[in-house]
Amino acid sequence: MERRQVTLKEKLKAHYDNRNFQPQETSANKVGVAFYWFMTISLLFESLLILIPTLFKDNTTVKLLCQVLVFMALVECNACWFLTYKDVSNYVRKTFIEKYFTQIQETPPGWRSCPSCQLDAPPRSHHCKLCEKCILKRDHHCFFTGSCIGFYNQRYFIIFCVHMIWSNAFALYLQLTYLNEAMPIFSNYFVNYLPGINVLLYFFGNIPIGIVLIVIHSHFCIFCLGAGIFFFVWQMMIVSSGQTSHEAWKNINPYGKSVLDNFRSVFGPLKFSWLMLFFPVPFDLSEDGIKWEIQPKSVKGH
């Protein structure tokens, strides 16, 4: 019997009937990474081609200094982003258990068997369904970088937050200074900065499209600045206490040492690690992310 060929109309109908409008978690990675690169590229061109040349056209020294700061922000942010992005060093591997347990046949005490990875995972590691891997000392999944923040890239993520804060604050300063000349902020023009109002005024012909786009761009910068501050403060809190976000939420602290030792565990030798603010190069860490010793003090919760 000859098999009937499916028509294009039937294929389109089947595709329409089986459509899924539910947002997929994996899509958040793509959106977050795309948003980061949109902000990076758009701020670069906006600063170099519009804001700085207009604001400092009569002051060559300040103009040059601002251009240098823009390129510094570009290099530092992207360097930390790439070091955080898809860091495979955090992935739990089968060889990890062989490093400390060569003869054992069962899951070691304190470890757990991951049904998804089919591996024994060391303490403080957790499975990420977005990365589809168990992550060493997993803290959280970052959608801006499309990867999990764990033992090896937590320090780069924190430095990334530092550069996100100052670069977005600098961009916001340039934007508001530029906009203030056309629409003084502390005047009746203040409503023009409100989300949605400026778009409405543009359709009525009261605001140029360029001004509207810079206002919207400044709102994105405020969001990034707030996110950078939030994550930096939170990371400093849990690093100082020797916890991951999971352990902080569960109110447990079995591995925390002194504050300085906790910082060394994340950043490496403190006498050198401050250099990562300028050159995000790796330094040897005091732990390996596999073996963690419970400290001789009471656990606050379960």
Summarize the structure.
This protein has about 300 residues and is mainly alpha-helical.
Topology:
Layout: H1 8-17, H2 25-55, H3 60-84, H4 95-100, E1 112-114, E2 119-121, E3 126-128, E4 133-135, E5 140-142, E6 147-149, H5 154-182, H6 197-203, H7 209-241, H8 245-249, H9 259-267, H10 270-273
Antiparallel strand pairs: 1-2, 3-4, 5-6
Helix pairs in contact: 2-3, 2-5, 3-5, 5-7
Characterize the structure shown:
With 302 residues, this protein is mostly helical. Helices cover 53% and strands 6% of the residues. The protein has 10 helices and 6 strands; from the N terminus they run ααααββββββαααααα. The chain has helices at residues 8-17, 25-55, 60-84, 95-100, 154-182, 197-203, 209-241, 245-249, 259-267, 270-273; strands at residues 112-114, 119-121, 126-128, 133-135, 140-142, 147-149. The strands form 3 sheets. Strands 1-2 form a two-stranded antiparallel ribbon. Strand 1 and strand 2 (119-121) form a beta hairpin. Helix 2 (25-55) packs across helix 5. The protein starts with 7 loop residues before the first helix and ends in a 29-residue tail after the last helix. Residues 298-302 have low confidence and may be disordered.
Low-confidence stretches: 298-302
- Give the terminus-to-terminus CA distance: 66 Å
> What is the overall pLDDT average?
87
Record field, number of beta strands: 6
Note the overall shape.
globular
Radius of gyration: 25 Å
What is the oligomer described by this structure? single chain
Helices and strands, in order, run as HHHHEEEEEEHHHHHH
Percent helix, as a range, is: 40-55%
